[in-house]
Design goal:
alpha/beta; ThiamineP_synth_TenI; ThiamineP_synth_sf; Thiamine phosphate synthase; Aldolase_TIM
Length: 196
């Protein structure tokens, strides 16, 4: 997975190039708080990504899903998760982020979320060890797919070894030279898969 913030500077071709550079299942587009996104720009970015068979999820208002032809939402606020599940399932993907505890993750998984996402979309210093711990715990016990956020290529490899179903590359990794970073991450993940 890749994370981008929907700003006027996010070019559809740049986002698509990053997706094309590897086996990217989904892209989470963050919508900045307090501002309504340009629906034409959102649709253009989404279409460029979707052409390469990656789902586009918005971390923002759920009404954007239908309005911009998106595949679903990434819900970072647990208070909004149940409302999103009721409004969008089963037609759209509803992922659960913003998980502050193991209990929150279990509630999200049991509530019908399509995936649980460990780590904030904007990584915080020192979060890597906790994300790794949560991914390892979840992968051993639960069937709902889990995603771990990586703020470095080393973290991407560690999350894969811990059993993450998907590794999300933080925007800090893919903002500049996203395609090259995705290629490097895919190489790291392939090496993990090749280990006995």
């Amino acid at each position: 997975m890749l994370v981008f913030t929907l700003t006027p500077g996010l070019r559809p071709d740049v986002a698509a190039a990053a997706v094309r550079a590897g086996d990217v299942a989904a892209v989470v587009l963050r919508v900045l708080e307090g501002g309504a996104p340009d629906s034409g720009h959102l649709r253009a970015v989404a279409e460029a990504i979707q052409k390469h068979d990656a789902a586009v999820l918005v971390d923002g208002p759920e009404n954007l899903v239908a309005a911009a032809g998106l595949d679903g939402v990434h819900v970072s606020d647990q208070r909004s998760l149940q409302a999103a599940l009721r409004a969008l399932k089963p037609q759209a993907i509803v992922g659960a982020g913003g998980l502050a505890s193991r209990h929150d993750a279990m509630e999200a998984g049991e509530g019908g979320a399509d995936y649980v996402f460990f780590g904030a979309l904007e990584p915080q210093p020192g979060d890597a060890a906790e994300i790794l711990d949560l991914v390892g715990w979840w992968a051993e016990l639960f069937e709902v797919p889990c995603v771990g956020l990586a703020a470095s290529l080393d973290e991407a490899g560690a999350l894969a070894r811990a059993g993450a179903d998907f590794v999300a590359l933080a925007e800090t990794l893919v903002a500049d030279g996203g395609a090259a970073t995705v290629t490097a991450a895919m190489d790291r993940l392939a090496r993990v898969d090749a280990q006995p």
